[in-house]
Every structure is written in structure tokens, then in C-alpha cells.
Amino acid sequence: MKTLLTLTATLSAAILFTACTTTSVAAPQKPRTIVVWSEGTAPTNIYPKDINAAIVEGLKADKRFANDTIIAASINDPDQGITDALLAKTDVLLWWGHKKHAKVSDDLTAKIKQRWMDGKMGFIGLHSAHYAKPNKALMGTACSFSCYKTDSTSTKVTVTDKNHPIAAGVAETFTVENGERYGDPYIVPAGFTCVFEGLSSLKDGKTDNAKMVFAWENVNNSKSRFVYFQLGHETNPIYFDPNIRKILANATEWVMPK
Ligand SMILES: [Zn+2]
User: Fold this and answer.
1) CA of 146 to the centre of ligand 1 (A)
2) How far is the CA of 229 from the centre of ligand 1 (A)?
3) Whether residues 12 and 62 fall in one domain
4) What is the whole-number distance in angstroms between the Cα of residue 180 and the centre of ligand 1?
5) Within this chain, do residues 100 and 10 fall inside the same structural domain, yes or no?
6) Do 249 and 199 have their domain in common?
7) What is the pTM of this model?
């Protein structure tokens, strides 16, 4: 009996030690805050809860963000969706805009730029947000394309940098239907990596190739990161697409301040 008690005690201690060890090794990462902003102009038959909600849904389904807070913010919310308190804890800001760029306050734009310049936040510009105030402020260029066309029937997206973390786990080639295309060149700073490109099939039988995902790192002394994602017209439900969601989740993790 004494032996059994000793064995039981020893086993209990071993289990306790294992539990403590396991707990310390598997300590959860510090929760991060991810904000997905949009202006509320997407058609509700395509995006019933707007584009930001669709992107939030995709990010929440990714296990890497299980401990994080992911927020859908809108220009229609107080302080245009990004209060000082929220911005002060935002690790990644994703931005979709189209018709209301001019309504975004210069004050908010300056605060977003400052946090990014300080290396405290990554930024992802989505589709027509290329002309958004924060996007242009961070890039410091015109952020214009050579053309904006609705003359394509589909775009074949292909990974161009297989080793880039943003491409991890994404199909090497997939097709986006009914895309609106922007033509190269995109007037932005040099030094980016093109992670995906897209070959659009045009209604006249021709094709046009353009860069789809741009990624910058160490673009200033703060080592802040930036991604621009060309796809994502509001009449196209691609933010529900598994490949698109994977790219955005990878991009969110990649721009996250380390
Ligand atoms: Zn568009």
C-alpha cells in the first residue's frame, strides 16, 4: 500500500510537472488587434454586411488569429471608425474605399501615417483604396494606374514569388471571374516584391498582364510593412473566396509588427 501511495504521488508530481511545463511552453501569444475598415458603399446583394465584415469573417476563420481581436470599422462609425484609443492598439489596418476617399479626415490620415511610420502597425490597401488618403500618405506617390477597365471576363491569378510568406498555402494559379482590372504600371515606390500577378482575358480576345499583390518591407527606418492588393471590386464577391482569404490572412500576418 505504501508503495502504491508513493507511486501515485510520484505520478501526480510527474503529471503536475508536465502540465506546468506544457503550460509555459504553449503560452499564448500576446493578443493583437486587427482593424478592417471600409466606407459602406458596396452593394448589399454582394456584401450584405459590407466588405469589411466579409474580410473579418475570413480572418476569424484562420487559427493564427484565434487570440486576436478583429474589428470591422466603418466611416459611418464615430471618429470615422478609428478612435484614438483604437488606433493606439491597432497592429494591422486593412483599408477598402472607393467613393468616399475625400471624406476621410486629414487628421485621421496623419495619425494613421504616424503609427505606421513609428513601426507600430502594418497596413494593407485593398483594390480601389489605392487612391485612399492613408494609402497615398504612406506611399508618398500618386498611386495611379495606367488604366481602369471593365473589359475583362476573368483574371488568372498566378503566384510569382513562391517563397514569399504571403503565397504560403495559396493555389499557384486560380481564376477570378468578372474582374475589373487596373493596368500596369502602378505609380508607387520601388523596392516592392510582386507576389502575385494576373492575366486578364479581355472581351475582344486579347489579354493583359498586371501585378496583383505588392509587398514592401523596410521601406523606412521603422521597418513597417505594407501590402497592396489589386483585386476586390465591390461587385465581385471575391472576399468570400478561400484563396483570396488565404492571401489576406497571410498578408495580415506578414505586415504584423514583429
Ligand atoms: Zn473597383
Assistant:
1) 14
2) 12
3) no
4) 6
5) no
6) yes
7) 0.89
Q: Are residues 14 and 56 in the same domain?
A: no
For residue 47, the CA-to-ligand 1 centroid distance in Å is: 14
> pLDDT tens digits, residue range 7-21?
444 444 444 434 434
Quick count: other Cβ atoms within 10 Å of Cβ 148? Answer: 12
17 and 104 together in one domain: no
Do 110 and 21 share a domain, yes or no?
Answer: no
Residue 257 CA to ligand 1 centre (angstroms): 29
Judgement on whether residues 112 and 217 belong to the same structural domain of the protein: yes
Q: Are 121 and 134 in contact (CB under 8 A)?
A: no
Which amino acid would we find at residue 128?
S
Residue 142 lies in domain: 31-255
What is the number of alpha carbons within 13 Å of residue 16 lying toward its C-beta? 6
CB-based neighbours (< 5 A) of ligand 1, an ion? 128, 180, 233
Nearest to 98 by CA among 75, 67, 65: 75
Bridge partners for 92 per DSSP: 34, 122
- Render pLDDT for 150-186 as a digit per residue (tens, 0 to 9): 999 999 999 999 999 999 999 999 999 877 899 999 9
